[in-house]
Amino acid sequence: MLNLDRDVVIVGAGPSGLTAARELKKAGLSVAVLEARDRVGGRTWTDTIDGAVLEIGGQWVSPDQTALLELLEELGLKTYSRYREGESIYVGGDGQRTRYTGDSFPVSESTGAEMDKLIGILDGLAAEIGATEPWAHPKARELDTVSFHHWLRRNSNDEEACNNIGLFIAGGMLTKPAHAFSALQAVLMAASAGSFSHLTDEDFILDKRVIGGMQQVSLLQAAELGADVVLNSPVRTINWEEDADGGHRVTAVSERATVNARFVIMAVPPNLYSRVSFNPPLPRRQHQMHQHQSLGLVIKVHAVYSTPFWREDGLSGTGFGAGSLVQEVYDNTNHGDSRGTLVGFISDEKADAVFELGAEDRRRA
To answer: Is pTM beyond 0.85 here?
Structure first.
């Protein structure tokens, strides 16, 4: 058992926890990072499976992620653009596949007009309500008491338009069915991205990838921190108490280490807080809020081929279908790799159903 004295103890060795630790050390403070898993990176994970390098977790970088871009430069990591040349594929509600170019789905004129109308309303609400205090807006209660699914249908009677707009937030971002979250949460998601229009622009939000994989951001920072990162160390207890000088101390206890510090940073999803015993307990309302925060459900699907054959057919590898099992697909071929890789996403209730299948049935699906 390690016994450490530090200025700050950080729970979680994902990108946020490790970046916090690195910045604190640069400011002259001592840190310890406790990670439950046997690896760093959190939801970024680059792995090699059957000889193919795959991004199991988060991977894309958009131009407005300026802090991440600066960090990549500091760490000496290079990026490359996602392949997007050629035509994309749209699968309509009737299952019909259509090749198209440009940013707009090849839908009927009336459906396109309805989609534009919904995007305009959402852009307006996102700008009006903002991402800082959405609950304080006069429209907050109204929007928070109706599901995004029903809000869309209150504003349009075009089912294809509603499904397509719902895809960008429900399937693409929150990975929950549109009936499982409120219209206010959808507006907050749009406001956090700058606008709803940004969420519909895959060339913007899925702009670049990191050569060698996104997990390198965490691996390189962990290497800098060295022994200050302790793996296989799930934190079970955090004690807070006043010290003799009128300040306070915190003690984080894991299976491998006990860290005495002045401050603690929880760099894990809030729904994991319940696995930690806080003494004294967190405020009741905060504890309840953490318990009720639910994460989405998504399956990331990789298909690796000997070559990116779709490029020879003039296809970009990009595809969308709100009613399809795999709702979105992109060319995910690695930099400098002769093989071709497609990546797709199965989300919300569709992912629930696929999780019930065995491994072979999932592959066939």
So the answer is: yes
